[in-house]
Please model this.
Amino acid sequence: MTQNFASCTQMALDLYPPPSFQELLSQRRNEDVSVAVSRKLRRGWHVTVHGKTGGRRLVVPEFLSGAPCDIKTALIDWALLPLQCRGQLQRRRKKGLERFIFGYIASTGRETRNRSTFDPQRYVAQGRSYDLGEVFAALNGRFFNNTISSYVRWGSHPLRSFQSSKRGPAGEKYNLITIGAIYNGPNVPRFAIEGIMFHEMLHIAFPPVISNARNVIHGPQFKQRERLFPQYKEWVEWEKSRCKRTIRRG
Model:
């Protein structure tokens, strides 16, 4: 991946401190993003979207305030990417930026990932209207003959639903499904929560495959099976409408 950091030229010796996030944003004349520093964050970073203005706020851990110019530029570029990178080029761009930033974090002696003790109790499945455990169990019996194994939890990000693999204290691998917060509301129809849960369960049933040197996540078999969900069209339309409203609100 080619990085363009022409505006970040510095002397070989660190005679001057690197430019601040605000200085870099001023140089770019970009009013769509601001940067906030959090003392609570240790390694990761995230972006929030303001509902009325559409402006984005990049929240970074305090130690990244002193990061080199190219790292700060990469973080700003990451913050300006679409919230859901659906295209192959967008996903490659995002992953490339993350590898670049995590590489710097690792060079500082910090771990790029948090170490946590395996504790299923910390995965909150009971929501405002739905218990994700109950939804998962119902779909598992109805569509998968109870062959899917996974923990489930509600996520804090409104738009991010995903399936991930983790390891317990003895190195054993287990699945975890995280459902975005837009589904955790009082007026969410049953077909919507079932639709997103069914989608994430399919990621376990049909894991990504390598085809022509590409990582295929939603292959033909996955898409064909997904369309067997009885209310697939209703779920897709509901999610599109709800996501648009959520992005406008922030």
Remarks:
- Confidence is low (pLDDT under 50) at residues 1-7, 9-14, 112-116.
- DSSP finds seven helices and eight strands in the chain.
- The chain has two domains: 17-107, 120-249.
- The first helix runs from residue 21 to 28.
